[in-house]
Amino acid sequence: IYKIYLKPRANDLSRKTIKLFRDYDQCTQPSRRRHLLFKRIMERIEARSRFGNKDFRAEFDAFFRGWFCFEERKDQGNDQCKLDPVIDYEGVLDFFSWAFFDKLRVHLKDWEREELDIMMNILKERGLIYPKRSTHNRKWARPLLISLEKGNPLHRPIFIYIVSWLIRQVSYTSLHFLGFHRYHVKTQKGKKLWYWYRFGSCINVDGVKGNMNPILFFHGISPGGLGFYLPMLRYFFSNLSQPVLLFENLHITWYLSFEALSEEETVYGVEQVLRNHGFYETTSKLTLCGHSFGSFQLTWFLKAKNIYPIIHKVVLLDPVSILLSYPDVPLNFLYGGSEKEDLNNPIYW
Fold this sequence. Notes:
Blueprint: H1 2-10, E1 21-22, E2 30-31, H2 35-51, H3 56-65, E3 68-72, H4 89-101, H5 110-125, E4 139-143, H6 158-177, E5 181-186, E6 192-198, E7 215-218, H7 230-237, E8 244-247, H8 263-276, E9 286-291, H9 294-302, E10 311-317, H10 328-334
Parallel strand pairs: 7-8, 7-9, 9-10
Antiparallel strand pairs: 1-2, 3-4, 5-6, 6-8
Helix pairs in contact: 4-5
């Protein structure tokens, strides 16, 4: 099943859905102006170099090289080969095609190519010019096109998934003892968003349980889901009188499924949850808490025009959504933290 169905489907790029980027000028509507995001990254690197009294070009070169690996070229008898690895113009275009459009360069549309030209001009204005590709380079730079590269994953034994299932069941039982109940809502496409809810214990002036400001928690990548969070959940939430919502992201918990929720579906589902429990159109203020991968989802809500106005606090635990344009997280997480010269070795995937 793994070799015939699961692995081919996971590597089937034709199933990819292309998402529009946010408008980084207005921050609320999707936009084609991808160069605005690139300018934002460049400005951050400039500010960082000024703060550290470092040369901007050197800082940008170090940042950019992190997204490339350097492969040996066969010496075709030319004794004048250059020994230094070079990032060439074509490599930059290939990288931008993936980073800003999630496509190979040959599949770009006309407006996307125009955006590439604007980005290359931004580099040129800052004195960052890359040479054309030459066959005389002994080493050449290959961009890491993460979502377009076919991986060579090794499946886990079925025993691992059984253990994960057992952990999940233990966590469900424990959450029931802590006063939580499991619910789900359906998204626009019929997918289910599962969550746990514990009522608040506050009493209003009429002697009836009232709604306080709820806490929404989003977990990170964790085998068995919320199981490994139980000590933390018990310690932090057991004595709180506020309502607590624990959202499950099953697709990062060793749960066998390809139907992961998109940003739009997650935001829609959380809106439905807030409506169902009376938090959406009241004076309630939300406290959002995200650990690791959950910090991505917090970013989605901070950009959601219907949820953002009722957010009161944001708590980030080991966030990975900050400075994600830097290559450190992808290199360490997806490529095993190996040296770039070894990235073509399947053992590191």
